[in-house]
Design a protein that fits this description.
Pfam families: Response_reg (PF00072). The chain is of the alpha/beta class and 267 residues long. The chain is built from 10 helices and 10 strands. The strands form 2 sheets. It has a 5-stranded parallel sheet. Strand 8, helix 8 and strand 9 form a beta-alpha-beta unit.
Length: 267
């Protein structure tokens, strides 16, 4: 799959900003681009044809980018569409739902063409792998057993689909650390991928329990989180987490880390 095969919807109320964004996209190699200044007509268009990528601003005349991605995720046809946010917004209450909804990237304004190129390459690789017809060359991964732990159903779905895209089919889900520990009493895993902030037993407590009290103390544990508190992240590292990834999840980085953690080979 090439960039010029992808249909992109750009939703940005500012004519100047929309021109800048579409200019960058065309410079990268994207040709099929449709522009909108509001979310409602873009959603109507998505009802006619499912895009490959939606690039949106946060503050739109008729709704926020948060409202838009929620509406998309409620539709069976749009729940897996790749979403990229471009915004100067930094407030947690706006950005966290977008992170949890499986956005491929959140780019600040102003952004560089390099940053956009990186996000689009990451997006293309994710779409290519999820739509790949031929079997992927991932023989060392096909027998892997992965436990995904997150209280967000959308986040679990996105991680599961990412695992499937890189050739891992056996993925078990848990909605929090307590459920994960119960599952781990019954099954063994090659990798645990967990969120940090969860009810009942959070990511830190889960890592500590795995390392000190479980029958699988050496299993690699990857933390995927939007947590920004350095003290809390340092505590997770001290507890023995194998890797920490930020939300939105970088698909290419996830793919590399999974191979590295499981095979021990730096790829």
């Amino acid at each position: 799959m090439n960039l010029d095969d992808l249909l992109v919807l750009v939703i940005e109320p500012s004519n100047m900003q929309r021109h800048i964004i579409t200019g960058h996209l065309r410079a990268i190699g994207l040709e099929e681009i449709e522009e909108f200044d509001e979310a409602a007509p873009a959603l109507e268009r998505m009802g006619q044809i499912v895009p490959d990528i939606v690039v949106s601003s946060m503050h739109l005349p008729d709704m926020t980018g948060t409202d838009l991605v929620r509406r998309m995720r409620q539709s069976p046809d749009l729940m897996d569409v790749t979403f990229l946010l471009i915004s100067s917004e930094t407030h947690y209450r706006y950005l966290e739902p977008i992170r949890q909804a499986g956005a491929i990237a959140i780019l600040p304004k102003p952004f560089t063409q390099e940053a956009l190129s990186t996000a689009l390459r990451n997006t293309m690789h994710y779409i290519r792998d999820t739509q790949e017809v031929e079997p992927l060359d991932n023989d060392e991964l096909e027998d892997m057993r992965v436990l995904v732990v997150d209280d967000s159903l959308l986040s679990r779905k996105f991680v599961r689909k990412s695992m499937n895209a890189i050739g891992i089919e056996h993925v078990i889900e848990a909605k929090d650390g307590a459920e994960a520990l119960q599952i781990m009493k019954q099954e063994s895993f090659d990798l645990v991928i967990s969120d940090y902030n969860m009810p009942n037993i959070d990511g830190l407590e889960l890592v500590e329990h795995i390392r000190h009290y479980s029958d699988q103390p050496s299993v690699p544990v990857m933390m995927i989180t939007s947590e920004q508190n350095e003290g809390r992240l340092a505590a997770v590292e001290s507890a023995g987490v194998s890797a920490i990834c930020n939300k939105p999840l970088n698909y290419d980085m996830l793919k590399q880390l999974v191979r590295q953690l499981v095979t021990g080979i730096d790829v």
